[in-house]
């Protein structure tokens, strides 16, 4: 009898755990992004501004210690020069992929290369889909007042 009741309770425990996990709130960074992007469920983007570090995508994906203000500049430059896709990494850890405002999409690489390793303010149209973030950059400027630690390994 004891074995039977334990087995019958097991599926209930799994269902309860699944409900708790699915009902848990998202982290603050995701909540802030959703507030900035109310049209994220529509096809159109929304006007917005993204502040962050222009760099290659590989290191922040593989090395979670690399942040928007503490990173290895030599590595970021080397990866960018080798052709790694360029992104904007925010202080909250969100990754924004720059894209063009046309279809077919055109590379933004030439426009971003001068900003690799620099903290920028990019203004334009922001898109969000299923956790992915992108921006069509209308204007981009370096934010020289942000302190960067660029020798982190």
Describe the fold and architecture.
The chain has 153 residues and is α+β, with helices and mostly antiparallel strands. It has one domain (26-142): OB fold (Dihydrolipoamide Acetyltransferase, E2P), CATH 2.40.50. The chain contains 5 helices and 5 strands, in the order ααβααββαββ. The protein has helices at 2-23, 28-36, 58-62, 73-81, 109-112; strands spanning 46-56, 86-89, 95-99, 119-129, 132-142. It has a 5-stranded mixed barrel with strand order 1-2-3-5-4. It is globular, with a radius of gyration of 20 Å.
Characteristic terms for this protein:
single chain; alpha+beta; 153 residues; 5-stranded mixed beta barrel; OB fold (Dihydrolipoamide Acetyltransferase, E2P); 27% strand
């Amino acid at each position: 009898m004891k074995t039977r009741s334990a087995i019958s309770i097991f599926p209930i425990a799994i269902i309860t755990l699944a409900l708790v996990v699915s009902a848990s709130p998202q982290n603050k960074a995701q909540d802030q992004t959703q507030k900035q992007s109310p049209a994220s469920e529509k096809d159109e983007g929304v006007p917005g501004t993204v502040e962050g570090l222009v760099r290659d995508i590989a290191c922040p994906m593989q090395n979670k210690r690399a942040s928007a203000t503490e990173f290895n500049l030599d590595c970021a430059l080397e990866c960018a020069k080798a052709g790694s896709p360029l992104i904007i990494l925010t202080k909250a850890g969100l990754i924004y992929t720059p894209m063009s405002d046309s279809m077919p999409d055109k590379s933004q690489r030439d426009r971003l290369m001068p900003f690799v390793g620099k903290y920028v303010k990019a203004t334009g149209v922001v898109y969000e889909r299923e956790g992915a973030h992108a921006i069509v950059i209308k204007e981009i400027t370096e934010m020289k007042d942000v302190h960067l630690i660029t020798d982190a390994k």
